[in-house]
Structures are given as structure tokens and as C-alpha cells.
What we know:
By secondary structure, this protein is mainly alpha-helical. The protein has one domain. The protein contains 5 helices and no strands. It has helices at 3-25, 27-33, 42-59, 62-81, 88-101. Helix 3 (42-59) packs parallel to helix 5 and helix 4 crosses helix 5 (88-101). The chain is globular. The protein starts with a helix and ends in a 16-residue tail after the last helix.
Amino acid sequence: MGLISWWKARRDRAARTRESLALNSDQDLIAQQTPELVGMTDTEGMAYVLRQIAEWNETCSKEQAETFAERLKSSNHSWEAQGLTMPYWGNLWVLRAYQLELGLDVPAVARLVERDC
């Protein structure tokens, strides 16, 4: 890899990193995807998401925990395939989507949208 191609690769990776960071703080997108986080700072939202996942892990069955873990892994791979890092609220989206699928009474999230990678 020559110097120019190395520099372009670093520049592209930096741009994807900036885009990933911007997704974490995009209040309009957060309101659309996971409305229960509206009004929280990034730090508050991250702590809230971690608490929700911890509570789920304390109450769910082993099979449910395995399914949730697989869905998180799959979602992360999907973001990575686009060169991005999944925003923190994406973890809550995966949790709530799964819980809603199970028929639990939890806050709603946006519907899944298929995207071309």
C-alpha cells in the first residue's frame, strides 16, 4: 500500500468514525428510533440503556438471553459492514424490538427498515 492509498484509507476511516459519533448524538434520529431516550444526554442515555439490558438479563430465560445476544451481534455486524459503529441507542432498539416481538409491555421503537449495504 502506497502512501497515498494509506492516507485515503485513513481519511475514509476517520469520516466513518465521525459519522458513527454523530449518530450517537442525533436527537431527531433517537426520537424516531428509540423515543424513550428523548431528553436524555448521551451519558444519561448510555447509562439508561445499560440498566435496561442488565434488568433484562436478570429476568429473561437462558434462551431469551441467547437470542438477544445473537441479535445484538447481528446488528453490530450489519453496522460494521457499512464501516460504522452501532450507536449506543441501537442496543436499546434491538432489546425493545425483541421484547415487543415476545409480546411484552415495553416502550415502542421504530420498525425495522431494510437497507442496502
